[in-house]
Specification:
Blueprint lengths: L13 H7 L2 H4 L3 H17 L5 H19 L12 H13 L12 H37 L4 E6 L2 E7 H26 L1 E2 L15 H7 L4 E2 L3 H6 L2 H27 L7 E2 L18 H24 L13 H25 L1 E2 L1 H9 L5 H10 L4 H18 L8 H7 L7 H4 L2 H6 L9 H17 L6
Parallel strand pairs: 3-4
Antiparallel strand pairs: 1-2, 5-6
Helix pairs in contact: 3-4, 3-8, 4-5, 6-7, 6-12, 6-19, 7-10, 7-19, 10-11, 10-12, 11-12, 14-15
The protein binds arginine.
The site of arginine has 10 residues, from helix 6.
Length: 463
């Protein structure tokens, strides 16, 4: 018989059991469910709501069930619907009537909210740690490539020279924002809902603060209806995960382009590439492509969650059982992608010569040539026109700006002097951009220092 079977004359249809059951995907919250029940049982005993000995018996048996699950000795049943009732059923099988006292003053509605919050708190910390590892890797790569000149792009057209360190540190900024968002989401996830009951609280004198403290939450929820029906924290996490995937997919896209023959800026390690079943010469950046592709399913989870919650009346509705597969899949995807991406990056070879040549071609120093004229007194608009003409000449004659003789320079403007060559070298172009946030070595080094300080101070935990 079902734990709630008293009011029913007939068993549920087998198909409905299968349809209704969530054990297939909520079993992963077994630990949170048991820890939550242990805290609840202890509190019931402490408050004299159930006899102290019963509370102790419940806690002990729950502890044993936890160990048995972890030892692989427990199997769950679809009949018992979800992880909450599976565990309660096992408890009752083991300790009989005492087990039946556990659910006093509690509903599965506040129980599932509690379990999910606890599970997501732990997962959020895990994702944050994976991001930290990736960002540390970027910091170390940036230090190694502080002088590696490469072309910066806008519209995927060569724009101005930068360094690979500057490019990597751009991604560090994104990942630090991701870490910051996770910490913020954690803050709103660490709200303890138990005591909300089914929707209207309970008549028993529960000690909500005790449960809150015992389970490592920051504060108790302030409204019983909201306590059981809020899933903002799930959606927020899905949004955080989506942005992480946006960042990983942009980075992946660049690495895919860079490893093409046309760019040849980087080469993936053999261990992070795959071949073709027909074309013997191929070495494909499958890992980066798959990460780019997997971003879609995480965005899908976010959309699924928003759509599932939209228009739901208060308080709990069974629709909300659909939250778990979405957020679990998004979490699984991100926790799968992050370490693979980090290792792919650290094992990748950088072709510095090719990057530098890439920076030299395509007139990336044209702005600096114009700035040179401005520094000699010419108005910027005029300098822009002079260099525009000069670039056109270079294109016609298949030359780069630095290849021109001083006579050729003079034919465009007599303001040019011999020092033009130094002024438009790749190094000068990069070093000249020394404002905070710029690509010059000192500026990038201070960004790196700030990033290291952020990573050192970072922790995602309750307040
Ligand atoms: N398995 C359910 C879920 O995930 C637990 C809560 C069920 N509550 C209920 N009143 N049917 O949402």
């Amino acid at each position: 018989m079902k734990l709630w079977g008293g009011r029913f004359q007939k068993d549920t249809d087998k198909a409905v059991d299968d349809f209704n059951s969530s054990i297939r995907f909520d079993a992963r919250m077994y630990k949170e469910d048991i820890l939550g029940s242990m805290a609840h049982a202890e509190m019931l005993g402490k408050q004299g709501i159930i006899p102290k000995e019963d509370a102790e018996k419940l806690v002990k048996s729950l502890q044993e069930i936890l160990q048995d699950i972890e030892a692989g000795k427990v199997s769950f049943s679809v009949d018992a619907e979800d992880i909450h009732m599976n565990i309660e059923k096992i408890l009752i099988e083991r300790i009989g009537d005492t087990g039946k006292r556990l659910h006093t003053g509690r509903s599965r509605n506040d129980q599932v909210a509690l379990d999910l919050r606890m599970y997501l708190m732990e997962q959020t910390v895990q994702v944050a740690n994976l991001l930290k590892t990736l960002t540390l890797q970027l910091v170390s790569l940036s230090k190694a490539h502080i002088d590696t000149v490469m072309p910066g792009y806008t519209h995927l057209q060569k724009a101005q020279p930068i360094t690979l360190a500057h490019h990597f540190m751009a991604y560090s900024q994104m990942f630090m924002r991701d870490m910051d968002r996770l910490r913020d989401t954690y803050r709103r996830t660490a709200i303890m809902p138990l005591g909300s009951g089914a929707l209207a609280g309970t008549t028993y004198p529960l000690d909500r603060e005790f449960v809150c403290e015992t389970l490592g939450f920051s504060a108790i929820s302030q409204n019983s209806l909201d306590g059981v029906s809020d899933r903002d924290f799930v959606i927020e996490l899905a949004a955080d995960l989506s942005l992480i995937m946006v960042h990983l997919s942009r980075f992946s896209e660049e690495l895919i382009l860079w490893s093409s023959h046309e760019f040849s800026f980087v080469e993936m390690d053999d261990a992070y590439s795959t071949g073709s079943s027909i074309m013997p010469q191929k070495k494909n950046p499958d890992v980066a492509e798959l990460i780019r592709g997997k971003s879609g399913r995480v965005f899908g989870s976010l959309m699924g969650l928003l759509t599932m919650m939209k228009g739901l009346p208060l308080a709990y509705n069974k629709d909300m059982q659909e939250d778990k597969e979405q957020i679990f899949d998004a979490l699984d995807t991100v926790t799968l992608c992050l370490p693979v991406f980090t290792n792919m990056l650290s094992s990748m070879r950088v072709n510095k010569v090719q990057m530098r040549n890439g920076a030299r071609g395509g007139f990336t120093n044209a702005t600096d040539a114009a700035d040179y004229l401005v520094k000699k007194g010419m108005p910027f608009r005029e300098a822009h026109a002079v260099i525009g003409n000069l670039v056109f000449y270079c294109i016609q004659n298949e030359k780069s700006i630095d290849d021109l003789t001083i006579e050729e320079f003079h034919s465009f403007s007599t303001v040019f002097d011999k020092d033009i060559y130094d002024a438009i070298s790749m190094e000068a172009c990069v070093e000249g951009r020394s404002l905070p946030g710029g690509p010059a070595k000192a500026a990038v080094l201070s960004t790196i220092a700030a990033c290291e300080a952020f990573l050192n101070a970072y922790h995602c935990s309750r307040e």
